[in-house]
Amino acid sequence: MRAFGGALLGIAMAVLAMIPVEAADVPVPRNYDQAMSWYRRAAGAGDAKAQFFLGLSYDRGFRVAADPATAARWFALAAKQGHPRAQFELARLYYDGRGVTRDYAEAAAWFARAAMQGLPEAQYNTGLMAELGQGSAPDPNAAADWYEKAESAGIDAARLRLSVLYARGDGVGRDLVRALMWLQLAENAGIGVDKTYRESLTETMKPEQIRAAADLAQSHLRAREKR
Fold first, then answer.
1. What pTM did the predictor assign?
2. Are the CB atoms for 95 and 107 separated by under 8 Å?
3. What is the pLDDT of residues 116-136, one digit of tens each?
4. Cβ(171)–Cβ(165) under 8 Å?
5. 85 touches 51 (CB < 8 A)
6. Radius of gyration of the chain from Cα atoms?
7. What is the biggest distance separating any 2 CA atoms in the chain, rounded to whole angstroms?
8. Which of 6, 73, 138, 211 measures 20 to 30 Å from 66, CA to CA?
């Protein structure tokens, strides 16, 4: 299963500059330097949003020299106040070992905190770490639960992981129809799938089972469209 480890980094890195940065309660700045000054004051005073913004600036190198260790300190301050994005970013740093010592247990704990607050990317990462046994013993039951939450929230990569769990019977009852359904949904979303996996899944299935999987996939898509 080590080959799937890269999926964690792919999802985790996807947030990058697309995160809608929340502003601290400060006046509208006239320029970036003034904004940074206000953010520093607000962060020093304990404002979690400003702490997260500064952490993001140092992590990404936005108008400051990239400094993962400083980013980790600001993320940690905001994360301990319950800021879900800061929790997610702090988890990424622990997972990668950037600015802090690599620690999968810490990464899993912070991903889980963000996941429990409903952050979809964190739900997926929590599921993947539970499946792979990174930071704790493998827990396929928890992995399946988190993947379902993440998929419902729009993380299409969770569909492939659910397919694999159903194919193996890990954390869920072994069900090749469900496995093929999730595989088709993953392919529908543009998730790359090794063709040998599909072949191994369908080679023992009856035609009516394959049709049933297609019907379930279509029903799932229709239900998603109605949300």
1. 0.84
2. yes
3. 999 999 999 999 999 999 999
4. yes
5. no
6. 20
7. 67
8. 6
